[in-house]
């Protein structure tokens, strides 16, 4: 899922991260697939934080971050 997300255009990425329920699902799928592929303590911690209900707020932060820097926060 993280490969698919990063292959999308910046506009599609930002739109997926701006829609409230969609951004929560996208965040969970992208973060946990990155943990499964690459591992790492920081990725696990961020994936757990995103999984709890604060993931919607982090999704909006990621939308802005993706717009500015073309990557997710703490990636």
Describe the structure.
It contains five helices and no strands. The mean pLDDT is 89. Helix 2 (10-18) packs antiparallel against helix 5 (55-69) and helix 3 (20-38) packs across helix 5. The protein has helices spanning 2-7, 10-18, 20-38, 41-51, 55-69. It has one domain (2-69). With 75 residues, the chain is mostly helical. The two termini are 14 Å apart.
Highlighted features:
75 residues, mainly alpha, 5 helices, 80% helix, globular
What is this structure's SSE topology?
Elements: H1 2-7, H2 10-18, H3 20-38, H4 41-51, H5 55-69
Q: What kind of oligomer do you see?
A: single chain
Measured as a percent range, the helix fraction is: over 70%
Order of H and E elements: HHHHH
Unreliably modeled segments:
none
Radius of gyration: 11 Å
- Count of domain modules: 1
Shape: globular
Helical stretch count?
5
How far apart the termini lie comes to 14 Å
- Helix and strand content put the structural class at mainly alpha
The count of β-strands is: 0
Instruction: Please summarize the sheet with the most strands.
Output: none
**What is the typical, i.e. mean, pLDDT?**
89
